[in-house]
């Protein structure tokens, strides 16, 4: 019978130790086993490790992408929800609009975006402002809705949905457009708003798409309408500043700042309207120009029109009398005659001219309106606006020097200003500039110039004898004053200012 000793509880497990025959229990030693691993096994293990590393990298990449998508969704729906810009503006409290200046004409209600509003790349034409930054012309984004009839299936359903958003659409016209299967492009609605665009897009109708455009708006309506001009349906300048600076407004999105001050413009328009009523005039114009810089602060021509209705305005309303109208300047030219005579030495302040009787030249007679019928000193000829004395003063200067003077004062060419509608004056040919022309031009007849010609030349008489180039653009207040062209002596200008005060 074989006897086996019970295992010692403190001894190692049989699987991990071995015993020698005759050895004590505590003399056990660990069992050593040798496992043989082949080369294919090592290759399989290495491949599994590489696969496991790649799976970890791919999983990490998906985790990063998923986190980014979730973050973007949270930002777009919770933190910064996307809303139409127009709607967003209505939700923000808007400051009360400033009270209009006295005489400011009523205008159509036009939403003006707050400064810094960016409508995106579809707004291509820069804004126009007055010298203080008041918006005169802005571009608002619109979208044109078009369709591809070849992929419109349920026409009745599409018509019903579209008219739910755009009730102004005519059902018959819409049906004819959507069933024109021989076409791939038809306009459904022009210049829909951003809100309408989002509503149409939300309908999810295949075959509808948008073509982005913009519309030019003039928030102040009639203010400086002829100066601003207008654009055609494609946004190209057609008149005024819009035409002259067309390329600048298309390529530079910075606002174009004009020298016009809407406050001065509004007051002048109001006063001019009252004068037209008083004298029952069919038209009128007024200009305010800074004699030191040539900046035009106001330019009004009546009748005028709402600049938002440029394409509907008549030729009479579009006509800018200040730069396009040619008129005999009348007694305003006596300032030129007086300055010319003093500056050339043909007359002195103490010179006297006999105005006691009319001047007869052939079949023409030059006489005074309510004349004094006596000899007049040089200051009196201006103070009493004597045509007879002015004719004699002009004769003392002579035809040749008179023509040279008016050429130097810019009376023979269009006024150089940033408006395309300037006209050339109507003046006698050199061969016809004889004795009669010299006398009549001396008191403002026989020559036709624009009102801006008169304003520019009169400014030279008043401002130290310097002829400035008129401009419709605002100057930088820190810029040095522009250098004018000297057309008369400082002494002549000083005397003329005193005579103007006397008048």
Low-confidence stretches: 82-98, 101-121
- The structure class reads alpha+beta
Oligomer: single chain
What is the C-alpha radius of gyration, as a whole number of Å?
44 Å
Strand content: 5-15%
User: How does the major sheet shape up?
Assistant: 5 strands, mixed
Helical segment tally? 17
Helix content: 25-40%
Gap between N and C termini: 158 Å
- Mean pLDDT level: 86
Number of strands: 17
Shape: elongated
Quickly list its features.
503 residues; two-stranded antiparallel sheet; 17 strands; elongated
Give your account of this protein's structure.
The protein has 503 residues and is of the alpha+beta class. 37% of the residues lie in helices and 14% in strands. Strands 3, 4, 5, 6 and 9 form a 5-stranded mixed β-sheet that branches. The chain has a two-stranded antiparallel sheet with strand order 1-2. Helix 3 (155-165) packs across helix 4 (171-178), helix 11 packs antiparallel against helix 17 and helix 13 (387-397) crosses helix 15. The chain is elongated. The relative contact order is 0.09.
């Amino acid at each position: 019978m074989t006897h086996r000793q019970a295992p010692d509880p403190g001894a190692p497990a049989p699987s991990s130790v071995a015993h020698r025959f005759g050895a004590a229990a505590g003399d056990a030693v660990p069992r050593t086993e040798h496992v043989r691993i082949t080369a294919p096994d090592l290759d399989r293990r290495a491949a599994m490790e590489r696969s496991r590393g790649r799976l970890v990298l791919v999983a990490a990449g998906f985790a990063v992408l998923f986190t980014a998508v979730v973050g973007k969704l949270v930002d777009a729906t919770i933190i910064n929800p996307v809303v139409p810009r127009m709607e967003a503006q209505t939700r923000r409290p808007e400051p009360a609009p400033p009270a209009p200046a006295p005489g400011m004409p009523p205008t159509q209600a036009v939403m003006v975006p707050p400064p810094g509003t960016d409508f995106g790349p579809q707004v291509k034409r820069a804004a126009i402002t007055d010298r203080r930054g008041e918006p005169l012309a802005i571009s608002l984004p619109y979208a044109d809705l078009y369709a591809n009839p070849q992929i419109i299936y349920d026409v009745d359903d599409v018509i019903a949905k579209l008219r739910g958003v755009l009730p102004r659409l005519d059902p018959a016209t819409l049906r004819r457009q959507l069933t024109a299967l021989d076409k791939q492009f038809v306009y459904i609605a022009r210049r829909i708003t951003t809100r309408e665009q989002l509503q149409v897009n939300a309908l999810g109708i295949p075959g509808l798409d948008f073509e982005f455009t913009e519309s030019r708006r003039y928030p102040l309506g009639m203010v400086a309408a002829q100066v601003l001009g207008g654009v055609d349906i494609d946004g190209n300048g057609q008149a005024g500043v819009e035409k002259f600076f067309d390329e600048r407004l298309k390529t530079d999105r910075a606002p174009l700042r004009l020298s016009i001050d809407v406050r001065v413009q509004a007051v002048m328009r109001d006063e001019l309207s009252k004068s037209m009523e008083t004298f029952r005039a069919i038209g009128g114009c007024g200009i305010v120009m800074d004699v030191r810089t040539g900046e035009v602060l106001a330019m009004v021509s009546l009748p005028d029109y709402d600049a938002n209705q440029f394409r509907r305005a008549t030729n009479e309303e579009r006509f800018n009398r200040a730069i396009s109208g040619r008129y005999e300047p009348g007694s305003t030219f006596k300032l030129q005659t007086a300055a010319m005579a003093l500056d050339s030495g043909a007359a002195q302040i103490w010179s006297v001219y006999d105005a006691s009787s009319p001047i007869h030249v052939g079949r023409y007679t030059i006489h005074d309106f309510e004349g004094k019928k006596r000899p007049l000193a040089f200051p009196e000829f201006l103070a009493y606006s004597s045509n007879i004395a002015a004719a004699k003063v002009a004769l003392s200067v002579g035809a040749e020097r008179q023509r040279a003077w008016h050429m130097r004062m810019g009376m023979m060419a269009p006024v150089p200003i940033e408006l395309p509608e300037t006209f050339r004056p109507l003046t006698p040919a050199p061969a016809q500039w004889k004795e009669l022309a010299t006398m009549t031009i001396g008191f403002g007849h026989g020559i036709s110039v624009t009102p801006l010609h008169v304003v520019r030349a009169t400014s030279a008489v008043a401002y130290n004898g310097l002829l400035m180039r008129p401009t419709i653009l605002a100057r930088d207040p820190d810029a040095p004053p522009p250098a004018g062209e000297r057309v008369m002596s400082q002494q002549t200008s000083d005397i003329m200012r005193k005579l103007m005060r006397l008048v």
